[in-house]
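Support reply, case 0932

Customer input (verbatim):
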Amino acid sequence: MALSHDIPAPKPRVLLAEESLPYRSVIREALMAFRDCEVDGTSSAEHAFEMALAKEYSLFIFSLPLPHLSGDLLDRLLVKAYPLAHRGVHTSPPIIYLIRSQDMATYQALQGTARVKGCVEMPPRLDVILTLTEKLLPPKK
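Our regenerated output:
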């Protein structure tokens, strides 16, 4: 019979919302190869909202341009709803934005928020993703 202290802690979870399946795949594979985490991905802001309320996450990675609802608006909604959905949680997880060149002005306006940990310009670069997540997610063992 296993004792409760023998049960490993759950891996940190990342919620990734990006419309492009190839970009989502690259980011997911990079994170899971170099960080000890699980990654849930979706192309839909609405689905990301539902997922964030259903599970606890350690990090959000949202594209600024998402269909029907921008990544920054999705995050603002989750700042209000996430703590209500998860007992003992007082704020939403940190966030990294995925941006295109035309999103730079919007991203710069968001930079002052303490939860914003940076941005990845698209197409995603492995070194940027790993640098931004270095202090947010544990390394792969």
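We compared this against your earlier run and they match. Two observations from our side: The radius of gyration is 15 Å. The beta strands are 13-17, 38-42, 59-63, 95-99, 116-121. Please reopen the case if you see a mismatch on your end.
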